[in-house]
Every structure is written in C-alpha cells, then in structure tokens.
Specification:
mainly alpha, Growth Hormone, Chain: A, 13 helices, 390 residues
Length: 390
C-alpha cells in the first residue's frame, strides 16, 4: 500500500481515536475489574490468583498468535476494513460468552475469544498509521493511538464499576462496535501501488529488533502493574472499596498519561526527537513502581499512579512513531506491526506467570514491584542500541 504525504484531517483523527478507545475498553474493562471479580466468584479467595493467572495467560497466548495472523491476512487482502470488522465481531462474541460464564472453562474460552478477536481491529488500526499518516504527523497520531488506549482503560473500568458482572460485560460489548462505527464511515483505503500486495517475510533488521525489545520491556512493566492491582489494593494496601479505588487510580493514571502522551507526541514531531521520550518513560515508570513496592499506603499509591501514568504517557507519545520509522518494508507493514504488537501482548502472557509465584511465595508485592522497576531500567539500558532514531 502506498503512503500519501497529504496530512490526515482532524475528523479522521477523531474517528480513529474513538475506535481505539472502544478496542481498549473491550480489553481493559475485563482485565481491571470484571475478570478478577469473576475469578473470585468461581475459585474463591484461595484460588482467585491462580484462576486469573490461567485465564489471562491463555488469552494472551491466543493474542500472541492472532495479532501477526490478522496483520498477515490484512497485507494479503490489501485492505484494513474487513479485518477491523471481522475481529470486532469475534471480540464482541467473546464478551457475551463471558457475560454468561458460570464455569472456569467457559470463562477461559470467552477471554480467549476476546483476545483473538480484538487483535483484528488493533492490527488494522496500527497499520492505518503507516498507510495514511505522513512521517511529520506520526508522533501526533501515534500518541493519539496510545492516549486513546489509555482513555479506553477508563471507559472500560467505569463500565465495569457501574455494571458489575454480566451487565458490565454486555455494556463493554455494546461500546466496542459503537465507538468503531465512525472510523468505518470515515476511513478510505489508500490506492495500491500495483494491484493486490503480496505478503512476504522480510528480515526485520537490528533496529526493528531493538525497538521491539524496548516495547516488550515497557509493556511488561505496564502489565505487571495492572495484573494484580485489584488484589494489591485489597490485600496489601487494605482499601475498603477495591473497585472504586481501581477506578480512581485508573483515572489518575489516564489523566497524566493522556496529557503527557499527546503533548509528547506533538513535541516529538516538532523537535524531531524520539529517544529522549523513551528514556524519560523508563526512569519515571521505575520511580512509580518503587513507590508501590516500598510504601503501600493509599495516599502514596495515588502519587505512584501519577508517576506510572506520566511514564506510560511519555512512552506512548513516540511508541508507534518509533516502530513505523524502523519498519523494513512498506509492503508488509501490517504483518511487521503484527510482529511488533507481540511485544505488547506477550507481556500479558508473562505477567501472571511472573507475578503469581512472586506474590504468593517469593516476597509478595514489594518484590514484584521492585522487579518491575528493574525491568523499566533494563529498557533504558537498551536505548543506546536504537541508533536509527534521534
């Protein structure tokens, strides 16, 4: 697919952001509240962590396969819209299965369907940046992609708080396609360079590999913060209304991530610099998670959420701008962005695998969040290898 150098309009960007908010709500409403509550109902207090870890790990494994596969199909078809629609349908079906799940196998199957399906619109949305957005706007639109994901976390969490259980799942299932509809009406596919593009594998190259690794590490930080946040607040911090606290911290996180993310994207385009934002993100994320580890007091956890939100915002400001700059070949854009998205989904698989034994046997939440801080700093250590960026 060819890239036009004409700037994308505000109307397209607004529709794009709404679609991403819907996809993120479909993911994070369940992850933040609905899945933990459902796991507690089905497995009880003694088995909730293990069941949640199993459900999220299987879902992440499905996502790990689905995202590159959706991307490859999209490149083969030469169109993003069918992938967006088909994936949304499958994801909504999974949410409805979860709304009726009364057993562990049905819960697992429902979440695997959600993960498999919603990777379709995610792959399409990521590829649209490379298809439609000129290089001089990619920091701004890429930041919009990240900020919309963050806003979707708030929406999904709010829907889960207002309508717990089956009602929450149904509300999220309605929100996902409703928010995506505007993009289907607004988006136009770019003209093909020469008929149907041929999907083929292109060797990624070292710069893509380093960008992939940094994305993986910082997404792992985010996943480790979120995976047991519900239980951390109830069991370690000792708050009374856990669901409301999750919503409060999510709003705080999103407020700072959204402001810094969008402002950072605009500034990175203006300054033509990306690496400084990644470096700031790693340091700020490490600071926030150290606070969570050492001072599990409600007021301090709010400060930690500010830092985690600010750090994540600094990273999403340039995340997709970095990746699209190091892609090896325009003809396999969706495929390679699917591979890049593995760096976002694989941490969902690994986070519960890492967190469960640490929380239950190897030192609890202090050790978990100190480990998370070390992972953030490891991403910082990788940054000098990314020489393709300013």
């Amino acid at each position: 697919m060819t890239i036009t150098e004409a700037p994308v309009r505000t109307r397209w960007m607004a529709a794009y952001a709404l679609a991403m908010i819907g996809v993120a709500a479909g993911w994070f409403g369940p992850i933040q509240i609905l899945l933990p509550e459902q796991a507690a109902r089905l497995a009880g207090a003694d088995g909730k962590e293990s069941l949640l870890a199993l459900v999220t790990a299987i879902g992440a494994a499905a996502s790990l396969v689905a995202n590159p596969l959706w991307g490859a199909i999209s490149d083969r078809m030469g169109s993003r819209r069918p992938i967006f629609v088909a994936g949304t349908v499958i994801g909504v079906a999974g949410l409805l299965v979860l709304s009726a799940a009364g057993s562990r196998p049905v819960m697992i199957a429902g979440w695997a369907l959600v993960q498999t399906g919603l990777n379709g619109p995610l792959a399409a949305l990521a590829a649209m940046i490379g298809d439609r957005v000129p290089q001089r706007q990619r920091g701004t639109v890429g930041a919009l992609f990240g900020v919309a994901q963050i806003a979707g976390v708030v929406l999904g969490t709010a829907l889960a708080v207002v309508g717990p259980g089956a009602t929450g799942y149904v509300a999220v299932a309605v929100a996902v396609p409703a928010l995506g509809a505007a993009l289907l009406l607004t988006h136009r596919e770019p003209a093909h360079a020469a008929g149907r593009p041929r999907a083929r594998w292109v060797r990624p190259g070292a710069q893509f590999a380093w960008a992939w690794l940094i994305r993986f590490l910082l997404n792992l930080v985010n996943a480790l913060v979120l995976v047991y946040l519900f239980y951390y607040l109830s069991d370690q911090v000792g708050v009374a209304d856990t669901a409301t606290w999750v919503l409060l911290l999510t709003v705080v996180n999103v407020l700072f991530a959204g402001v810094l993310g969008f402002a950072g994207g605009v500034l990175s385009d203006r300054w033509e610099r990306r690496r400084i934002f990644v470096a700031a993100a790693a340091v700020i994320l490490a600071a926030g998670t150290v606070l969570m580890a050492l001072v599990p007091v409600a007021a301090v956890v709010i400060v930690a959420s500010v830092l985690v939100g600010a750090g994540w915002g600094a990273y999403v400001a340039v995340d997709l701008a970095v990746l699209t700059q190091v892609l090896p070949d325009a003809g396999t854009r969706a495929t390679m962005l699917g591979v890049a998205n593995v760096a976002g989904t694989l941490p969902q698989l690994l986070a519960p695998v890492v967190a469960a034994p640490v929380v239950t046997r190897l030192g609890g939440y202090p050790v978990l969040y100190l480990l998370t801080a070390a992972i953030a700093l490891l991403a910082l250590a990788c940054l000098p290898r990314l020489q393709a960026l300013s």
